[in-house]
Amino acid sequence: MRTALVVGTGLIGTSAALAMTARGVRVHLRDTDPQRIRTAASLGAGTDAEPDGPVDLAVVAVPPAHVARVVADVQRLGLARGCIDVASVKGGPRRELRELGGDPVAYLGSHPMSGREQNGPLAATADLFEGRPWVLTPTPETDTEVLNLALELIALCGAVPVVMDADAHDRAVALVSHTPQLLSSMIAARLESADETAVRLCGQGIRDVTRIAASDPDMWVEILAANPGPVADVLAAVAGDLDEAVRALRALDSADEEKRGGGAAGIEDVLRRGNAGRARVPGKHGQAPAVYRTVAVLISDRPGELARIFADAGAAGVNIEDVRIEHATGQQAGHVQLMVEPGAASALESALRDRGWSLRRL
């Protein structure tokens, strides 16, 4: 691939453009907002100049509701040899393209499973897709050249190709992406009118659950409007669990010992099913999640503290498998939780204490 056209210079489009230009592809940028094009170009994502002729690949990075029309326009104008989109819903746009008279042979639906809470070109990075799954939804009529161009793009972005049926993809993302967004927002919405005292008690659990609730509502309305059925199906199943949990909790508040026992069993059931589901979420390098030991270290909010603790762990010969930071409310301090192999935890604790760090038992 020597040339590409990116239509839509938001987070995903600009990130793909940055990755391609960094590897020598000449990228042309298009957007309905000229300011976004200028911003993306200033970041090194490509040029706002029109291509001299058809580019090798057009990457359509617009909301799902607009994908089919933009792809049809790209094909009608002969702007590219092949065209892919990167929207988070796949079945609907493909069917709409057929209705518009587009060419399904030169088109391939795709979806990089990567993103951030922020949107727009300023949030883009060339490494956004590194190591992340990138779904491809070819059909028997998809041109091999278009598939190969898409695979080359994925390689340039450092992502991992995953081939799926379009409708199966939409059901999958309803479960692992779209419904979690709604649930996160619903939990965060409880905080809007909560007492200030309660809000000040927020710890890492509520921060984890509500992190993606900071996402752009307009963007998510467009995504959910393109995949409402599968999301509603998952939410209906969750609603059933919620009803059962409410009944179980009411039973736990009963004076009847038998009812309390049934309530405890109901709560235990959903918690254990949660354990089983969480155990299926891929861990490091896509493997089954490992069981790590956590070493929690008190850390002050000063420049260089994180670098120093990582350097001390490295000097002790211990590999940090994962890390998280728990901030102390109203204080210039917090705890860094270092996840390590169980056999390395004691050595790390001893080494950090010897270097003056204060450890916290979890």
From TrEMBL:
<keyword id="KW-0057">Aromatic amino acid biosynthesis</keyword>
<comment type="pathway">
    <text>Amino-acid biosynthesis; L-tyrosine biosynthesis; (4-hydroxyphenyl)pyruvate from prephenate (NAD(+) route): step 1/1.</text>
</comment>
<protein>
    <recommendedName>
        <fullName>Prephenate dehydrogenase</fullName>
        <ecNumber>1.3.1.12</ecNumber>
    </recommendedName>
</protein>
<keyword id="KW-0560">Oxidoreductase</keyword>
<dbReference type="InterPro" id="IPR008927">
    <property type="entry name" value="6-PGluconate_DH-like_C_sf"/>
</dbReference>
<dbReference type="InterPro" id="IPR050812">
    <property type="entry name" value="Preph/Arog_dehydrog"/>
</dbReference>
<dbReference type="InterPro" id="IPR045865">
    <property type="entry name" value="ACT-like_dom_sf"/>
</dbReference>
<keyword id="KW-0520">NAD</keyword>
<keyword id="KW-0028">Amino-acid biosynthesis</keyword>
<dbReference type="InterPro" id="IPR046826">
    <property type="entry name" value="PDH_N"/>
</dbReference>
<dbReference type="InterPro" id="IPR046825">
    <property type="entry name" value="PDH_C"/>
</dbReference>
<comment type="similarity">
    <text>Belongs to the prephenate/arogenate dehydrogenase family.</text>
</comment>
<dbReference type="Pfam" id="PF02153">
    <property type="entry name" value="PDH_N"/>
</dbReference>
<feature type="domain" description="Prephenate/arogenate dehydrogenase">
    <location>
        <begin position="2"/>
        <end position="289"/>
    </location>
</feature>
<dbReference type="InterPro" id="IPR036291">
    <property type="entry name" value="NAD(P)-bd_dom_sf"/>
</dbReference>
<feature type="signal peptide">
    <location>
        <begin position="1"/>
        <end position="19"/>
    </location>
</feature>
<feature type="domain" description="ACT">
    <location>
        <begin position="294"/>
        <end position="362"/>
    </location>
</feature>
<dbReference type="InterPro" id="IPR002912">
    <property type="entry name" value="ACT_dom"/>
</dbReference>
<keyword id="KW-0732">Signal</keyword>
<dbReference type="InterPro" id="IPR003099">
    <property type="entry name" value="Prephen_DH"/>
</dbReference>
<dbReference type="Pfam" id="PF20463">
    <property type="entry name" value="PDH_C"/>
</dbReference>
<keyword id="KW-0827">Tyrosine biosynthesis</keyword>
